[in-house]
Amino acid sequence: MIILRAARDMGTVTQPGVVIRCHFSFAEYRNPAHVHWGQIRAINTAVFEPFAEFRLGEEEARDIVTIVLKGNFFAEVGGQAPHQLQEGDIHLLSAGQGIQEAKWWAASPDSSFVQVWLLPDEEGGVPESVVHHRPVRHGQNALAILASGFAEDSPEDTDSGQADEPVPLCASARIMGMILQSGVTTHYTTGAGRLLYLIVLSGTIKINDQPISSGAGAAIYNEIEVRLQGETNPTILLIDTA
């Protein structure tokens, strides 16, 4: 089953200088029909005016994955030294047993990011804030694993922060990205009982022959394999979750 959600159906949250489009209930946006999807708690795309900031208060038991779509950002967690983020970089805030505050602010005009919030397999743990610098943001005509909670996706025992390594998650989930050329088809296979969610960041794609365009989402279940066909050079994220 594939449930398509058009861009016009997403919620909107604003902070000074920031407009956030929300796939699930978030902050003042409330939609009881879309509170979470498996371990996905929130998916937000945010567009920033020059040097605006997005700030969080206390959070716990969340993996917050930020992928810079355009421009430059700084990310600061709990008063620690800020991370500098450029286009394509991935920042993981694993809130663990709790953080007091976090903020991201645009360091250049015309900046945007997408954030994926995931519920971890287990609560607690030491909070962590890490960055992977990725010169290539997504796979070309094949899904690249950007973040993963599966050991087989990160064979090394430690996170070295290399560009081709997935960011390590506390959730049994994968976040994957891809740029798919027009007319090219690829497939993704998952396990029984898994839930998928697809976000179209730009362009148009067909999912099992159903078209979906920029800003939209698709909740997918009871589908072991999905067929993805590029229509107008789409850039997508695909999340595989318990």
SSE layout and pairing:
Blueprint: E1 2-5, E2 11-15, E3 18-22, E4 40-48, E5 53-56, E6 63-70, E7 73-77, E8 83-85, E9 90-94, E10 102-106, E11 111-118, E12 128-132, E13 139-140, E14 144-148, E15 167-168, E16 173-179, E17 185-189, E18 195-202, E19 204-207, E20 210-213, E21 217-220, E22 225-230, E23 235-241
Parallel strand pairs: 13-16, 14-15
Antiparallel strand pairs: 1-21, 2-3, 3-4, 4-11, 5-10, 6-9, 6-11, 7-8, 7-10, 9-12, 14-16, 16-23, 17-22, 18-21, 18-23, 19-20, 19-22
Largest β-sheet summary: 8 strands, mixed
- Cα-atom radius of gyration: 17 Å
> What's the end-to-end separation, in Å?
16 Å
State the share of residues found in helices, binned by percent: under 10%
Mean pLDDT: 94
Secondary structure class reads mainly beta
- The shape is globular
Strand count: 23
Order of helices and strands: EEEEEEEEEEEEEEEEEEEEEEE
Portion in beta strands: over 45%
Oligomer: single chain
Provide the low-confidence segments as ranges. Answer: none
Annotation field: number of helices: 0
